[in-house]
């Protein structure tokens, strides 16, 4: 059952080939048996899952159940779950049990999806390797000595290892697309404002966006149908009709204009990864698409701008973790200052502290204009680059990452090398555009991804384009050893 | 003050709590006095993942204030985060406005005791959220500090004046004027004792005749006119003494404790926080359309000046009465109800400003909390006007109403306070008193005409005594004069 896609599971459940309880038990058993190898799941919610599955079976029996009714999923541990510990990968929230659901969680609950548990992640979503999690690193199912990517590494590894058919994730600078690429699955970061951020613990508010991860584009469409909604509890959520993302998957892509930015194929890109991406582009050409070389001249500025804006926002978003109202508190504080300093020194990991320091510095009197102000100007330029590009092309394609999954510890001492992992992904967050990653080849026996960047609210077309590719290729169906 | 050679420059920052039902960014109630932390929801507690949603009513109230002072309205304003650590600031930042406030430059005219007026320029007014309250500050070592977040997130406008005031009288006139405006347009309940209006006072001094501003200090969080006056006096004195003794004023934030009358430095400029303001990414820019502005302008409640003019016109009040009653929205509303009931505006104005105001003051009550309702006072005044009771009786009836004994008529009835106005009965009473006091009558007759008037009081006293105070004094006066005349 674990090799079935969500689309197939929906059919099986609706036609009563198997029950949700059976399915849930199957996945819970897999998590219990296999997750020691991956460390992808922080919290397993077996009892609640089985109860939800039994309820889903009743709805299914009554007929007219929504598509996702009875389908097991995992939530990234950044989404608040009512009554279930939500750690955000941090010691700071190791004891935090929210009394409310994120809107995303609520949407899946209403649809009758079954939540198996919460997935591991980089602490407060800060990282590209999942090495910053308080709960230990997640291992890439394709190579146990390599990272799964981050920050949604737990969700990506769990889907790749068939611990769940799909999972929620978030993307601030590539946190859905990069781990999707490194774990050989499909992931979509929607347009900023498409998915509600209510109850999604903030890293960088103007960049954070929730999205689905699954093995196929078709499954991502089913998940996004449920995940996307207008939410008046999030002022940045955009009130715009949610299309049926499944409806247009089969559309032809003949005549599609694909922009290929030359800056995405320059120095720093691994040769074999480039080859895999070029082959994928050729496949699109074969299907009748047109490749057009374009330029996104400010690409090189995106990582520096991102690493000012994201830490700046994070530095104030994370001020609330002060040991006063919830979460970790240091032992026997001597006074208020001691409470603050020790709580935060002990509760946060190094990468989080690092970024809080950078962000605080960038916003300080005398530095604001040179850093934050400048970065916002760069952000505008990057947005204009894309606007100009979309005047002549329908979508933009390139590599998701410069290379396949790297080994644990290999970039630990060099934050800049780690940050360059995001070189192809952060620009879309700065512009608020949707982006996705689709498996497109194997390099050193590890998967690499093709990135598809769409225009604002063009998720349906992107999913269609990805689906057409997956109809003609098998990269998304490959299974890591020891998983089947 | 005996500090000749110096002049004072004062600017105010006034925090006005907006009378919205819910908080500026959450659905929690803003009502005052609830048990600690019962009016703080997940957003107010800054739980992870929660997000602010702007309260439209708060925006409208801010715009209404802008319209009331004829200010520029920021059609696109924006919220920023002011970052600092403190337990009563749960998010670790205050969401406020800096670069793009909702209300721009405006003007407030103040009236001074000598009858002159002065214009105080408003630099801007911005929307922001209030903080919670730390209880037992400084006792943290003993583990007994508490935080009440009920107030956290209450909407405020902060009104920032230019340094246009030159003494405490002007500062207080300005503060009272703002109170009058915000209560008149209904955007603030004006309850100073509950912190609905709080004042930060910026004070500097300079040699008389110079134009350069001296170094200023800011005394924060004064919540009464009296404390403001005291704090200004103390600070002016301190600064002048300091400079005259060869020292310099340091830019600092100060606190004044109105109970102990002690002022102290809170933090110097060097110790001031770097608030790291930046645009709040959780909130969109606030757009106020021309249509909204026009609609709010059309529906703007009567402003104090217009109301005072109307009171003179409609009720025939004196300028003074109209100014006193008309500047206080709650008093004005009370007066209008009572005057309608009594149909005697002048008498109603006297009672509202006199007996009622004095009684409220003595018990530190706002007019909204008066035990005697406007209708009740109106009924009482009706009975004074139709001569059912004398002014003196009316005071007794008022005391009864204050104590909750019932309506004016009920109290007049139960206490037997009915004034005797039957002329037959009064005439009989007068004749009896004259007959019983023949010596006084002789004395009256023998006194030369010019001094007779003074003798009348003696007869009045006897007659009122005989009637147990219930005789209508005007009528008695008339009858008495007539009877005595007949004897001449």
Overall description:
The complex is a heterodimer of chains A (484) and B (488). Chain A contains 15 helices and eleven strands. In chain A, the strands form two sheets. Chain A has an eight-stranded mixed β-sheet. Chain A has a three-stranded mixed β-sheet with strand order 1-3-2, with helices on both faces. In chain A, helix 4 links the parallel strand 2 and strand 3. The longest helix of chain A is centred in the last third of the chain and has 24 residues. The termini of chain A are close together. Chain B is of the alpha+beta class. Chain B folds into three domains: 288 residues, no CATH class; 114 residues, no CATH class; 65 residues, Arc Repressor Mutant, subunit A. Chain B is elongated, with a radius of gyration of 29 Å. The mean pLDDT of chain B is 92. The interface between A and B is large, with 45 and 30 residues.
Describe the structure in brief:
With about 475 residues, chain A is an alpha/beta fold.
Order of helices and strands of chain B: EHEEEEEEEEHEEHEEEEHHHHHHHHHHHH
How many individual β-strands of chain A? Answer: 11
CATH architecture of chain A: Alpha-Beta Complex
CATH structural fold name of chain A: Amidase signature (AS) enzymes
| Tally of discrete structural domains of chain A | 1
Number of helices of chain B: 15
Structural class estimated from helices and strands of chain A: alpha/beta
- List unreliable stretches of 5+ residues of chain B: none
User: Spans of chain A with pLDDT under 50 lasting ≥5 residues?
Assistant: none
So what's the CATH class of chain A? Alpha Beta
Q: From the helix content, strand content and strand pairing of chain B, which structural class follows? A: alpha+beta
Question: What is the CA-CA span between the terminal residues of chain B?
Answer: 62 Å
